[in-house]
Amino acid sequence: MSRLGAIILAGGASRRMGEDKAAQMWGNRRAIDHVAALARAVGAAPVITSGGGDYGLPRVSEPVPLSGPVAGVLAGVARLAGAVERVLILAVDAPTIRAADLQPLLDVAGPGAAYAGLPLPMVVRLAAIPTDARDAWPLMRLVAHAGLRLLPLQQASAARIRGANTPLERARLSRAAGLSGGHPRPTDHPSVR
Q: How far apart are CA 9 and CA 68, in angstroms?
């Protein structure tokens, strides 16, 4: 059994962003590819996505499309049960997050951890997922009921961890990360290479 797997939540409607956040180009890679590479870099295997889109990674679908992030978490946990002990849960809209941002969460023993005020990313032991958890729960309720330790969020990493839900947030994060990223350039698309 692998110790750590990862679920990338990619099932939202991206209404505030105006386009599919998972497929957006950040530099020369899609957001989903940045997040998946980060999960692998911190030792997660397997790495799956939760949501309706097919991004070329193993995926699970929520029982009811667009039913919320906890529905995506529960679908992913059901898929990974028996294969991993812990799961790293990441948001697709945080493609500039770094391994150093995740390390404090990964280092916590017990049920797991999240940052105070931000439910994602989180690391949770599958055994800590409440059996009465429901798809419609807010993520913070899942965090509380799983008994996750809340770590202080460092100001320097807050924007990366929070991610980008609007074009303005995306532009700021792209600039801060040194990525071209307002809109994809024609040469950023894999079919042009």
A: 10
- Cβ proximity of 114 and 148 under 8 Å: yes
Whole-number Å distance between alpha carbons of 91 and 95: 8
pLDDT-derived band at 40, boundaries 50, 70, 90: very high
Predicted TM-score (pTM) of the model is 0.87
Of 47, 52, 76, the C-alpha closest to 135 is: 76
**What's the domain count of the chain?**
1
Collapsed DSSP state (helix, strand, coil) of residue 83 = coil
- Where does the pLDDT of residue 168 fall: very low under 50, low under 70, confident under 90, or very high at 90 and above? confident
Other C-beta atoms lying within 10 Å of the C-beta of residue 122? 24
Q: What CATH number corresponds to the domain at position 181? A: 3.90.550.10
The per-residue pLDDT for 179 is 79
Q: Are strands 47-50 and 59-60 parallel, antiparallel or unpaired?
A: parallel
Write out the two tokens for 48.
């799956």
Domain interval for residue 110: 2-192
Residue pair 97/51 in contact (Cβ under 8 Å)? The answer is no
Number of alpha helices (DSSP H) and beta strands (DSSP E) in the chain: 6, 9
